[in-house]
Amino acid sequence: MSIKKKALAGLLLSTVTLSTLAPITPLTHTKIAYANTTDDQIAAAEATIANAQASSAETQAALNTLQASVDAANEKVNQLLAESTATSAQIKELKVTIEQRSETLKTQARNAQTSGSVTNYINTIINSKSLTDVVQRISAMTQMVRASNNMLKQQKKDQAALQEKLAQNTKAYGEAKELQDQLEIQKHDLEAAKIAYSATIASTQEEKDQLLAKKAEEIAKAEAAAAAQAAAEKAAAEAAAARAAQQQQSASTTTSNSTASNSTSDSSSSVYHSIIPVSYSSNNPFPAGQCTWGVYEILNGNMPIFQGNAGDWAVNANSSTPVAGAIMVFSPAAAGNEWGHVAVVDSVNPDGTVNIRESNYNEQKYITSRSNVSTAGCLFIIL
């Protein structure tokens, strides 16, 4: 009649899955792998929710069946309690009847003992006036005896009925109590089934929302990284284009006018090259003709001896703003090679470009000068 806990558990497991999702794996360094993993988990969460919603009719039918069982048990309890009440009333009436009859039988017994029934019967017959009177008196006494016997039989019958009613009432009460206990269990199971179904939807939706939030955060980080990379590539491309333009302009400069342009640089002119006469020092610690060698020569050795390639000198930079006399450090990206480049700032132009002197520009192993040079990707060592 009732749905037991074990059967209910099987029913709930077949219709409601509380832990369908696979464990969430840690984020990897590869964006595609992360996206696939997260998308799989989101799809699994959506499948769990969809399956639970699709089986809602079946789950509701199971809940309805359980509710019907609860209602039936409740109705049976009420019926048994009503029967117990009616039986109790009958028992009460039987007790009253039996007590009254017992008093009557006790009175008759006392009368028989005190008046002597046999003598009275004989005297009654002797004192009869006629045979008809004898018959009538004997018939009356017989009826009295029969009535007493019937009363005794009824008394025994009623007492047996009383015991039967008592046993029946005890049984009905026991059944009612057992059904009441089952009713409480079924009510508890009904509430548990409803909570379990709701919890499945709620908890799975929460996991899905967390996965979506993580995915959105990772996408935002990936987009930011892509934007930064694009900006860096753009800056590198612009620097490369500027160097190409400078190289093209320098190639068009003739040897005849390079000497004439040596003494003065025009900040509004295009990039130029010129041979700068210097007094080569035998104390120069850097490889002859390299850019580091050229800086030492241009500054007449009035500088620290920095270590590493030209690009490594950036660790000694103390300014991002150019000033005349400062050492200009080109990063490998700005220099267009893996070693970097260094030069000496002669002057700063109003537009932010600089005029410089350097060595080993375009593999020219001597001191040259350039004007209107961009400072993008460069740092400065102010001595």
Task: Provide a descriptive summary of the structure in words.
- By secondary structure, this protein is α+β, with helices and mostly antiparallel strands.
- It folds into two domains: 5-228; 271-381, Alpha-Beta Complex (endopeptidase fold (from Nostoc punctiforme)).
- 63% of the residues lie in helices and 9% in strands.
- It has helices at residues 5-15, 31-54, 56-115, 117-126, 131-251, 255-258, 291-298, 332-335; strands at 327-330, 341-348, 354-361, 364-373, 378-381.
- A five-stranded antiparallel sheet has the order 4-3-2-1-5.
| Uncertain runs | 15-34, 250-270
Helix content: 55-70%
Number of helices: 8
Number of domains: 2
Strand order of the largest sheet: 4-3-2-1-5
C-alpha termini separation: 98 Å
Q: Residue-averaged pLDDT, rounded?
A: 77
Based on CA atoms alone, the radius of gyration comes out at 58 Å
Written as H for each helix and E for each strand, in order along the chain, the element string is HHHHHHHEHEEEE
Shape: rod-shaped
**Count of DSSP strands:** 5
- Percentage of residues in strands: 5-15%
Structural class: alpha+beta
Largest sheet: 5 strands, antiparallel
Secondary-structure topology with pairs:
Layout (H helix, E strand, L loop, with lengths): L4 H11 L15 H24 L1 H60 L1 H10 L4 H121 L3 H4 L32 H8 L28 E4 L1 H4 L5 E8 L5 E8 L2 E10 L4 E4 L2
Antiparallel strand pairs: 1-2, 1-5, 2-3, 3-4
Helix pairs in contact: 2-5, 3-5, 4-5
